[in-house]
Amino acid sequence: MSASIKNICCIGAGYVGGPTMSVIADNCPDIQINIVDINKDRIDLWNSDNLTDLPVYEPGLDKIIERCRNRNLHFSINLEKNIAAADMIFISVNTPTKTKGIGAGKAIDLKWVESSARQIAKFAKGYTIIVEKSTLPIRTAETIKKILVSSETNPENQINKSQSFDILSNPEFLAEGSAIKDLQNPDRILIGGENQNAIKALKEIYINWVDESKILLSNLWSSELSKLIANAFLAQRISSINTVSALCERTGADISEVALAIGTDRRIGKYFLETGPGFGGSCFKKDILNLTYICQYYGLKEVANYWEEVIKINSWQKKRITNIVIEKLFGTVSEKKIAILGFAFKGNTNDTREAPAIDICKELLEEECNLIIYDPRVNPNQISIDLESPSIPISRLSEMKGKWAFSKSVIEASKDADAIIILTEWEEFETLDWSLISKQMRSPSWVFDTRSIANLNEAKSFGLNTWRIGNG
Ligand code: NAD
Ligand code: UGA
């Protein structure tokens, strides 16, 4: 059990803050954990009686919330009270790419991190350990420190609150869709910092369920940088295998056989070799852009260019898929109907941030194609926001051009469709009823499987034309 930490505050109740704190609460019943956010709607959803309304869908999360909520896990908009009560504060806020000003399109917008640091400076009392959980550009701890030190040295604060701080970096490596599993059984926990007592306090929390040998200690800057590099390496593998998928389609090789053949070499390893429609998610692109920005800042142009290619290949892969669909449908999709199966950026999540489906659907809509979109977890309002286009009732779609409708089932979505494109690897797409689907599509009908998940041999046996990524 933790020697000293009794009260944690986490700023940011998002995809990381919510699941991460839930797992700490579950494993450390003696620590009170308050997750705070400026977004009241989000906090209300975390407090919802109906667990299907939680703002984040992650397998296993609802059970933990049920066990811990209002016991030692609390969701609130009261930053002042919860920051003041905490002896450890996690900063788990969003760190998107800057859209304006210096570094726009590449650098990280630290606005939310800075505002968190200012709130901590304003409300914290006594000694507080600050933990960077968000993914941050290298040396961000320096910025946070400057804000906190100016508060520490303010005589007024010392009289009222006797503030002092230590800062640690503790990046999060969970992947969405498997967040709870990843948090319960992490490959490693990385803690970067200078103050040994602060490091010990954080380590003692993790030791409640993580083997000590998995806890890696480093200096602050190595820890901050390692997170960016881990994401860059993972994304690089996906871009690499995606380039090979194109080569396989031209040559008669099969990407799944090639991935197995290379992945069984222990030096290469079998993970992250699944070809697909391009990587999505809120982090890979923004973290690599940030890495290239940092390299450029330090005058390392060649290093920046190297990593930038990973993103360029990702955009190319999405465009390549759209082009293949159009080509197979006789060079035009105007006024044709295509069923899109899966909109989330990967299976087992309701998150659509940077989902390849967004770019692919936008391009098809631009070509005046009508889309019927089905995803078992994504909210249709989110799709409207992502596509910057309102949905139309399915019954009216055939009168339209370049519009989309939301469907509640695969069968409904495929009715009268010229093609089906599978964009997310939802488990239910493994066992689609091709006999039924084939009867209601318009001939000649196509299935494009960008996730290598569907039983295309069966689809073919019912007369459908099929295309699988990396196989053709
Ligand atoms: P998110 O957008 O889901 O959640 C961030 C939350 O912080 C939002 O609800 C926002 O309202 C809140 N917030 C922002 N400023 C605040 C403030 N000053 N006070 C209180 N609340 C504030 O983001 P996320 O996906 O949870 O990511 C958070 C960080 O973790 C990012 O740096 C991201 O790169 C990193 N990360 C994300 C993942 C992932 O899978 N999503 C995994 C590892 C690391
Ligand atoms: C990724 C990393 O895996 C996490 O370690 C990291 O903590 C997180 O980013 C982050 O910093 O946000 P996440 O984006 O949630 O996690 O999900 P991944 O499983 O990495 O998938 C990312 C994208 O790559 C998805 O679109 C997925 O479909 C795609 N992908 C993944 C492939 O196309 N092929 C693969 O073999 C693996």
Strand line-up in the sheet with most strands: 3-2-1-4-5-6
Shape: globular
Q: SS-based structural class?
A: alpha/beta
Helix content percent band:
40-55%
Distance, first to last CA: 55 Å
How many strands appear in the DSSP assignment? 14
Instruction: Give the uncertain stretches in residue-range form.
Output: none
The percent range for strand residues is 5-15%
Main sheet overview: 6 strands, parallel
| Rg result | 24 Å
- What compounds are bound to the protein? nicotinamide-adenine-dinucleotide, uridine-5'-diphosphate-glucuronic acid
How many helical stretches?
Answer: 18
Mean pLDDT: 96
Describe this structure as you would to a colleague:
With 472 residues, the protein is α/β, with parallel strands linked by helices. The chain has 18 helices and 14 strands. Strands 3-2-1-4-5-6 form a six-stranded parallel sheet, sandwiched between helices. Helix 4 crosses helix 5, helix 5 runs parallel beside helix 6 and helix 10 crosses helix 12. The longest helix has 32 residues. It is globular and about 80 Å long. The N and C termini lie far apart (55 Å). The relative contact order is 0.08. The mean pLDDT is 96. The site of uridine-5'-diphosphate-glucuronic acid has 20 residues, from helix 10.
Summarize the structure.
The chain is α/β, with parallel strands linked by helices. It contains 18 helices and 14 strands.
For the structure shown, list the relevant keywords:
472 residues, alpha/beta, 6-stranded parallel beta sheet, 14 strands, binds nicotinamide-adenine-dinucleotide
